[in-house]
Amino acid sequence: MNGATPLTGTSRPHAPLRTAGPDPVPGGWATRIVVSSLLGLRHAALGLPLDPVRARSGLSGPTRSVFKGRGIEFAESRPYQPGDEVRHMDWRVTARTGTPHTKIFHEDRERATLVWVDLRSALFFATRGMYKAVLAARGAALVAWGAALQGDPLGGLLFTDHRHREIRPTRGDQAVLQLIGLLAACAADASETGSESGGTLEESLVRLRRVTRPGSRLFLFSDFIQLGEREKVHLAQLARRNTLVLLFLHDPLERLLPPPGWYPVSDGVHQFVLDSHSAGRRRQYQEQFQHRREALAQFCHQHGICFLACSTEEDSVAVLQRGLGITLHTKTPHYDPTHPTT
Fold first, then answer.
1. Positive or negative, the Cα torsion across 301, 302, 305, 307?
2. C-alpha 61, offset from chain centre
3. How far apart are CA 251 and CA 122, in angstroms?
4. Cα–Cα nearest to 125, from 224, 272, 13
5. By CB atoms within 10 Å of each CB, which of 131, 182, 212, 273 scores lowest?
């Protein structure tokens, strides 16, 4: 690239950036998806509520179903109808009203939890803190452990630049271990090159709609940079019959350009120079990001989707715990912005 080129809203790396210094987090898991760190999140998932109050759909709600039928928790009494079981007769109401009544209970419905994780090479990026892909993996592992601890079926759909990987909903720790193994495998996929195409948001959302049963919980992890109107249609359809939680991942460099200067930037293959001298361009850049974030948050609000934003300077585990209703007794890890990751 000749000369100095300002960074725009569409200029972004398409391969993992090389680190410019040591990892700010012991163990190296700020820039790598490390299996041991994901296994260690089991304790953090204790008591994690997977049904945020602000993200209710018509068929989701809490673990107890909104449908009434044969269950174990009393819902109401209604007049007896032919075919009702005698053992469910409400004799007290029958005696008081003189009309036969039967008890109705909340129907127990199996609720699957699915994680949808964007692990394309562009997500292996951060200027501070942890790579977006690492944040996505940690958030997905936390949700997976939460589902396993509640005894709920866990499934997932992970996608890279080259392929999609699906996990059919199953119960138990084995499902979590399978997911964690695939998260690590997808990290290896991100460094591959090839002509196979499998990493568009739209295609992945189509696949997600195909495998999701009504009443499921869906947790989506991405930076959603390529989210357009067609992708929003799929999200809106999913939100109609499921509970959706969307974790929006972003980096400080996407929010605000650095102080005026010339900055060499590389994705490991290509190089160009970032010109941030123009005050007007810096302001426009900041406004573009703010508009994109607000538009996504408003879309989620309109469709009953729980919207959570997570910077690479934060930890997705703490963001999810706070957003889903856990009161933290420990401080969120803080990353010194003077020691960038990339």
1. negative
2. 18
3. 12
4. 13
5. 273
Strand 306-311 and strand 271-275: the pairing is unpaired
Gyration radius from the chain CA atoms:
24
pLDDT at residue 63, as a whole number: 40
Q: Which mean pLDDT values do the consecutive 10-residue runs of the chain (342 residues) have?
A: 34 33 53 94 93 49 38 70 81 91 68 96 92 97 96 95 92 96 88 57 94 94 95 96 96 94 82 90 95 97 96 96 70 38 36
Q: Which residues pair with 69 in a beta bridge?
A: 105
Domain ranges of the chain: 26-60+111-324, 64-108
Q: Which listed CATH number (3.40.50.2000, 3.40.225.10, 3.30.450.20, 3.40.50.410) goes with 26-60+111-324? A: 3.40.50.410
Q: How far apart are CA 136 and CA 158, in angstroms?
A: 10
In sequence order, which residues have a C-beta less than 8 Å from that of residue 239 and are 6 or more positions away?
Answer: 57, 303, 304, 305
Strands 271-275 and 262-266 turn out to be: antiparallel
Structure tokens at 117: 């994780």
